[in-house]
């Protein structure tokens, strides 16, 4: 197990960071596909569609071809929320990581580095909501290279965010994940984050029943000892 250390993002890390983000999201496609296959609507389409075609045309071949052509379409649907998310973030906060995360005191972006490679990422931005009574930080883009998982890197990155939040006088850290990202949910829960709810965000998420799950970590008073 190679040692790693956590440091602030530098422009030269960009290629690694974008790669980690894209791979980290793309790896959820198979689980989303399996979930999609189990949805009642999909089962009806997969069984009822070919059956209806068979009854109407009397052709087994047509019915089989219809079933087979549905699978790539369902795979496309399962992939879409993840590619949409990556495309959107690369157009917004991640288009210029230094500008978005490192130009103000209350935000930051870190990487975990091991053997001169970036193997983990996490970012944090303040939540800009004037109705909030507490000062709130949002955690973004936690991702660890698949070959470096299970070594506590994600935990260390989240702790870095929590420590930063405390140092900057935030009272809460929030984040969004999804009901497909089971390792991430286990990680956040094991670190004391509490689930506050879930929602269906966009049309692709609705189609594949991908719920965004919201978590919060309430920081003890800033005077308490370090995390
Ligand atoms: C989620 C992710 C960041 C975890 O990274 P990691 O470095 O392997 O996590 P850690 O080694 O720090 O594990 C910390 C805790 O997370 C949980 N965890 C991590 N992987 C897990 C898994 N496969 N199954 C169940 N729990 C898991 C455990 O509670 C673990 O604590 P433990 O080792 O004391 O049991 C990583 O799997 C990843 O990058 N996934 C793809 C991107 C993604 O989904 N990111 C989340 C964005 S919200």
Automatic annotation (TrEMBL):
Major localisation: endoplasmic reticulum
One Gene Ontology cellular component annotation held by this UniProt entry: endoplasmic reticulum membrane
Transmembrane regions: 36-54
InterPro entries: Acyl_CoA_acyltransferase, GNAT_dom, NAT_camello-type
Membrane topology type: Single-pass type II membrane protein
Domain of life from the UniProt record: Eukaryota
PANTHER family named among the record's database cross-references: GNAT FAMILY N-ACETYLTRANSFERASE, N-ACETYLTRANSFERASE 8-RELATED
Family named by the database record: Belongs to the NAT8 family.
Designated name of the protein: N-acetyltransferase 8B (putative,/pseudo
Organism listed in the record: Pongo abelii (Sumatran orangutan)
Gene transcribed to yield this protein: NAT8B
């Amino acid at each position: 197990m190679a040692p790693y250390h956590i440091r602030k993002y530098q422009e030269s890390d960009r290629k690694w960071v974008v790669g980690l983000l894209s791979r980290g999201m793309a790896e959820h496609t198979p689980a989303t596909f399996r979930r999609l296959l189990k949805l009642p609507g999909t089962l009806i389409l997969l069984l009822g569609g070919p059956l209806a075609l068979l009854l109407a045309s009397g052709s087994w071949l047509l019915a089989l071809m219809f079933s087979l052509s549905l699978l790539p379409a369902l795979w496309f649907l399962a992939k879409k929320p993840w590619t949409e998310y990556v495309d959107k973030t690369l157009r917004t906060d991640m288009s210029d990581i230094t500008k978005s995360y490192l130009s103000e005191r209350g935000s930051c972006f870190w990487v975990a580095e091991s053997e001169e490679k970036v193997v983990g990422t996490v970012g944090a931005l303040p939540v800009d909501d004037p109705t909030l009574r507490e000062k709130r930080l949002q955690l973004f883009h936690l991702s660890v290279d698949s070959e470096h998982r299970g070594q506590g890197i994600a935990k260390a990155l989240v702790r870095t965010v929590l420590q930063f939040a405390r140092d900057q006088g935030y009272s809460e850290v929030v984040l969004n994940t999804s009901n497909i990202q089971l390792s991430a949910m286990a990680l956040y829960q094991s670190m004391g984050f509490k689930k506050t709810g879930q929602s269906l965000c966009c049309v692709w998420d609705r189609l594949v029943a991908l719920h965004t799950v919201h978590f919060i970590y309430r920081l003890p008073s800033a005077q308490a000892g370090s995390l």
